[in-house]
Amino acid sequence: METDLRLESSLWVGNKRYLAVLTGWHFKWTEVDKKNRQKKTFSVPVAEVVGVEEGRVEILPQKLVEDTDKDFTVFYVKRSSSGGSYGLLWRLGRTQFSCPSRVLRDQWINHLRSALKTHSPLRPHRLLVFVNPFGGKRKGRQIYHSLVAPLFELAGISSHVIVTERANQARDHLLKKDLTGFDGVVCVGGDGMFSEILHGLIGRTQQEAGLCENDPAVTLQPCPLHIGIIPAGSTDCVCHATVGVIDPVTSALHIIIGDSQPLDVCSVHHASALVRYSVSLVGYGFYGDVLAESEKHRWMGPLRYDYSGTMVYLSNRSYSGVVQYLPADPLLSSPRDKTRCLSGCSVCSRSTEKLFPNTSDSGSLYSSHYSQFSTDSEGEWVSVEGRFRCVSLTCMSSSCARSPLGLSPSAHLADGTGDLILVWDTHPLAFLKFLYRHTSTEDQFDLPFVEVHRVKAVRFSLPGGREEEGHEEIGGSSSRIDEEERARVDAVSRNGSQQHLAERDMRQEVTNEQKTATPFLCGLCCKKAPAVSVWNCDGEILPFTEILCKIHGQLVRLYARGIEDGAAIHNCTVETDECERRRVLNK
Ligand SMILES: Nc1ncnc2c1ncn2[C@@H]1O[C@H](COP(=O)(O)OP(=O)(O)OP(=O)(O)O)[C@@H](O)[C@H]1O
Ligand SMILES: CCCCCCCCCCCCC/C=C/[C@@H](O)[C@H](CO)NC(=O)CCCCC
Ligand SMILES: [Ca+2]
């Protein structure tokens, strides 16, 4: 196959002559001077060619075609440093080539297009796109139409675009409507919009496979459709942690070339029923309280989290709880091993073999019987009890602009585990130090009141089984919850979601009462802080306190490739000896 696609000839770019070669995997063109000496080489992996067009074509600021019969234009991925972020920005590169004859021009176009088909089998042809017009700074529609749609068109992708009119429209569409013919689903929005797509696709896949999502012991069926994320939200944590940058053009290019990144998903259960799925954060205490507070200030846009974070920090709360976890195999990796999950991660590749032992390419066939969660492992559960500032579980690093390395910098995207971070109650300034370390490269786990464990499953309950039985004792300590608090916890436990609204109203009452004092004073002495927090599940408040979480390895696939290490990957189109050396080193 590869030899059939090989083509070599002289081509011109402007007034310079190049020797162009298409090998199986690469398209290269090397400048040749008048004395036939070879100079600069440009090299593009075929898998990163976006499109090949007849004539001299421009697409920006608008599409212009000068239809000459000896010219063709190649569009491809061009990398540049992202400045502040760890990933690389992708831009559309373009080179216009001139051939000595029309026959040769057609040969080049045909060879390049066939090579594309052979080397990028996952390129989407048809996409279902959901745009949330109200996410983040409310620029979703503009971002899609001005930056993304022209690229999809250039790449020959046909898209069915739905601008949502209500929350959960995208999820419901994916659960119920005909999805035949679509290769993937794209969301233009933030983490909340991604979560809708996640729930719709996972739910649909399990329905079709006849699997019960409520049972945490069931091995769920991975979703056949890929998910693309065009970031247009407030936090865009899933995009940041899987691409490394928040940039609509970079994400659109990953979608176009059909990149594929598997992603672990955590299912959250309460009383034998599925509550939600999460990929980023299942957090109790600080992160739950920040979310609950921020919901009251949605009008502030993305700034609501900074405001609410400050308010919640000043309220100085901690909560008692019992945390049980099922540790992952410590020989495979550790949350404190100082490694990072980067594109082509070897820890994730090894996990693929374990998760999908019967298939050569894990992602393409889904016949796994490997269950990480069975009654056999019951004996391995570890249990801790006490007062926590926060309890967080994350399936990936959860990096974002606020925290460039994330909640757990060494977490892996697709290793079938999550990192459980326990922050024990501590002095306010010590907790501030912990929070502050998220904004730098300093190790937030290197603090005496912080523990981190790589896990397969987590259970959280209130001390003495309060949610279930309404016991008065808190964690065996002498403190007692009053009648109102007990009624609230019991109600949530019995009636689930509906009572959750009542719970939040009651919580609001406490907060309103507290308005008389400054939040800091509340925290320090005066008012009794609530005895329970809420769970933040990827930006949604959960209606239950007592939950069980199970990690499902590689349940979905994104059009992404993980974070590219700018220092190691030297694939910058301009070919030098250094490129070759680094490529060899990276193999
Ligand atoms: N047309 C709509 N009207 C109201 N809400 C919508 C609509 N479409 C989607 N939503 C909901 O809006 C919520 C927030 O959207 P989104 O995630 O896009 O932005 P965000 O909250 O600003 O960003 P992030 O989640 O990254 O913090 C989602 O949970 C989604 O369910
Ligand atoms: C003194 C400096 C203090 C700085 C503190 C920085 C701590 C930042 C940690 C960032 C953690 C991001 C976790 C991601 C959560 C997302 O799944 C979720 C949905 O978008 N976002 C939130 O819940 C929004 C909640 C955001 C909480 C901050
Ligand atoms: Ca993981």
From TrEMBL:
Residues 466-485 are annotated as: Disordered. Keywords: Kinase, Transferase. Residues 122-272 form the DAGKc domain. One of its GO terms (biological process) is ceramide metabolic process. GO terms for cellular component: membrane. InterPro entries: ATP-NAD_kinase_N, CERK_C, CERK_PH, Diacylglycerol_kinase_cat_dom, Lipid_Phosphate_FormReg, NAD/diacylglycerol_kinase_sf. It comes from the Eukaryota. GO terms for molecular function: ceramide kinase activity. SMART domains: DAGKc (SM00046). PANTHER family: CERAMIDE KINASE, SPHINGOSINE KINASE. This is Ceramide kinase. It comes from Parambassis ranga.
